[in-house]
Write a structure and sequence with these properties.
Blueprint: E1 10-14, E2 27-34, E3 37-42, E4 46-51, H1 52-58, E5 70-73, E6 77-86, E7 96-100, E8 103-109, H2 112-119, E9 127-136, H3 140-145, E10 150-154, H4 157-162, H5 168-175
Parallel strand pairs: 5-9
Antiparallel strand pairs: 1-2, 1-10, 2-3, 3-9, 4-5, 6-8, 6-9, 7-8
Length: 190
């Protein structure tokens, strides 16, 4: 697969009938995709009953000025590991700038410094917190993209930060001019 077809900086939308209930109506912000594999953070589902304040308290961080925002279900891999997707007006030592075709789109941070900064009111201006991630080994996602399962769309800041979590899946398809209610749950055969 050549670099032009890699999905870093795009959103993956689960197709109806993807065949894995963990990804039903999933929206994945792709943070890395190359010949060695892929990593994305789920942004289409929140963890019921879990807010940012509870996460901060578990880490012994005073919530300070941080809102008690919902926490996203980032994916099934390492579900206790936290990530923050955020604007690029803040960066820590481990922040990775996720770039798409138009340049850097968002930052990905996975250490406690971003949470401390958010609690203290000196963090990124826009952010979302997730636990876990979606990961694919070498060639795995490339193979999945050739079968019925995933649809990729260009990343937009509004889909990441402004649209309600439970509306992101449908809104993602709308950016491509697709009404997901008209999609079938299996691929055709020629």
């Amino acid at each position: 697969m050549d670099q032009a077809t890699f999905l870093t900086g795009q959103f993956l939308l689960a197709m109806p009938g993807i065949g894995d209930t963990r990804f039903d109506h999933a929206v994945i912000a792709m943070c890395a995709h190359d010949a060695e594999g892929a990593l994305g953070i789920g942004i289409g589902t929140t963890i019921e009953g879990l807010g940012l304040h509870a996460v901060l308290e578990q880490l012994e961080i005073d919530p300070g000025v941080a809102p008690d925002a919902p926490v996203n279900l980032g994916g099934p891999v390492e579900p206790r590991r936290g990530f923050v997707l955020h604007t690029l007006d803040w960066a820590g030592q481990d922040t990775v700038e996720v770039a798409g075709g138009a340049g850097a789109l968002w930052g990905l941070s996975g250490t406690i410094d971003v949470l401390k900064a958010i609690a203290e009111g000196r963090g990124p201006s826009r952010w979302l917190v997730a636990l876990g991630y979606a990961g694919w080994g070498e060639g795995q996602l490339d193979g999945e993209m050739t079968r019925h399962g995933w649809f990729n769309v260009a990343a937009t800041p509004d889909l990441l930060y402004d649209i309600a979590t439970d509306a992101r899946w449908e809104a993602g398809f709308a950016t491509a001019g697709i009404d997901p209610r008209l999609l079938v749950s299996e691929a055709g055969r020629a």
